[in-house]
Predict the 3D structure of the following.
Amino acid sequence: MLSCYRILDLTDEKGFLCGKVLGDLGADVIKIEKPGGDDSRRRGPFFHDIPDPEKSLYWFAYNSNKRGITLNIESSDGKELFKELMKTADVVIESSALGYMDHLGLGYSILHETNPKVVLTSITPFGREGPYKDYKGPDIVVHALSGLMYRIGDRDRPPLAPSYSHAHLIGAIFGAIGTLIALYHRHSTGRGQWVDASTQQGLVFASSVEFQAVWALYKEIQKRTGGNSQTLQIKGGKKISHPLLWRCKDGRISFNLTLGPSGEKGNKALAEWMKKEGFDPGFLGHLDWKKMDWSNIEKEEIEEIFQIIAKFFLQHTKSELFEASLKMGFHIGPILTFEEMLKFPQHIQREFWIDIEHPELGTTITYPGGFSKMTGGTCGIRRRAPLIGEHNMAVYEEELGISRKDLIDLKQRRII
Amino acid sequence: MESPRPFEGKKVIDLCWSGVGVFVQNFLGYYGGTIVRVESSIRPDPIRAYPPFAPTYSKDEHPGLERSAYFSITHPVKEFGLLLNFNHPKAIELFKKLVTWADIVCESFTGGQMEKWGLGYDDLKKIKEDIIMFRTCGYGHTGFLASQPGFGQTLSSVAGLNSITGWPDRPSIPIVPFYSDLLSPLFGALALLTAVDYHHRTGLGQCIDHSQVEASVNYLTPIILDYVVNGREFTTTGNRIAFAAPHGAYPCKGNDRWVAIAVSTDDEWVSFCKVIGKPDWTRDKKFSTLTLRIKNIDELDQLVGEWTTYYTAEQVMAMMQTAGVPAGVVENAQDQAEDPQLKHYEFFRELDHPYVGKLNYYHPPAFKLSDCPAELGRPVLLGEHTEYVCTQILGLSDEEFVQLLQEGVFE
């Protein structure tokens, strides 16, 4: 659906996902690496745990669908080649430190001069302007400055950042959204523009509801709550701790207790199920769920409800509880291991997982499928990430018309 | 001459309730789209009834449907509010009329609900051939879970998002209670914006089937591949990672104040040692290389944590970042509201609201377009523009409107 757009991708891990998702939607994304390969190919995990630049699973994950060329844009010959590529490009994506592109003579004004239609998308930890613009922002630092980290974790330990670093994925995906809006704007203006995406702001988007609401309303600072609960405001402005993950026989589940009319059917069925199993549901058996809502419930009442339910869940497995919830209409989400996720019947029925050929590894690898199903075209992975310089010939020789002799010279001069 | 805003003239019907959908279509609202939000007062959007509420009501009054901070903070663009009671056949008829006006219909009901009303994609296409329909639900619109309701809280577990944060000796914990509600719509927005662009170029509409779980799983691809290829399930490691040390949150002067520090390169280590006044650590047999620092991480963390307590988090951040060492204040809500970087971008903005007053937690998306600022608008009230939409957009006469009102169509 986006196959009419050509995108030059100069990013490192901070921006990979931006080009990747635009590629999922059909754009021709050319990943430009330095000769010898991108540094981020050193990032694990690796295929069969073999640390090799052609075996980084991180690289595989977020460079699929892209074509790959090598180019030393720090050399003067490299810059000229890049400007040639620029002539047919619609978008340039970059995630370098502030000033790097200007230093190379490839800043926005130069790019815009070369091709006024081009959209430049910069994905950085804090944005291209402001007091933090030069700050370094690895995952944990952006998490800290986004407010998310302060509230994650236990009171007896320091605040926690996710063990799986993914802050920059969120900055990158905002970059991709901004890119599409800029491309659409181009239909009416005829001009490209600069998209300045900030990972910090992206994470604030994920924390503002939890954080800024109570700060703005009550000047109250939410603290770490042991991680596994959410503070809810109930009758008389009192606060209770709403558990998020509940233990069961073989793992943990999410359970979302819905009060009021929409929760009535499921909650009644849950209490009935308890009785059927010979489990005493206590006063749960005769509550008028329809009339209950968070703003009129008593602290003692809701805490007792939580206790009864928690005890009951311990007697059942994740799948028993999930299946029952589907039938009875209460809301449960089992914590799936990856093993379980790959076999999850809904994913199988929707043919979510996609096997992709990796001929040089002599195997196929199963990838998560597209993030949406669209009747207008394919959305999702079509081919594996490029090898180092895999499309040099296709791009330089066939598209730019550079002779074989010149290509050999460029190679020897370490330009490509 | 001022150029038109990107989505000027694009007409959107918003049927989305709860989370997710709103974050998708907000992007159209920020940049010039015209959105009519269709709600019902018989079965109101549960987010409107979700705490915390602005404390602008008296003790014996119910907070009502206009005071939820969750609703207002997530609806920061201008929308027209229309009440329609879909149990009434004339409401369905009016809705169909609205579809002839619209370019895009967004909905987030459980799978099959729109079909029950006779408003599935095939039905809408008959009304308007090139309509774009964006549909989001928990598990997607096909498969045996299509009609299951989805909640970010439960779907985050199914999607694996509740398994990636935690201490190695304690169970994993959620990042925010409904993380998938926030992460999956960013993918949904890409799909919708692509459909809008594709329509501009080809004149073709389409239907987007967005599954919250499937989109969320796309954030975890590297660790899923690690399982697929190496059979390794992800395990949490607290704040420690394999390629940086020190790497964590360290206590600072004050009550519950912390700074995050991450040192990965040798240059950063040399600078770090200089800042804390221990240049000899670069030659210390326990800390001179990254491998040694990771091996002796407990002792290193202890020593770093002793040094940081003499300074405020802001001081440590400034000293470290000036020396080229990554560090950041672990910001709480107040820090976030006062963050100089966010202020520079005017990230949090004030809007006035008849029920909650002036608050400054509304914000644009996490990017800035050089030629086109995002526009914010006060959250729409339930059915605020019912009469306007009926008479000005749908062309009903005043008499017709009053008649339908008495019949209970606008409830």
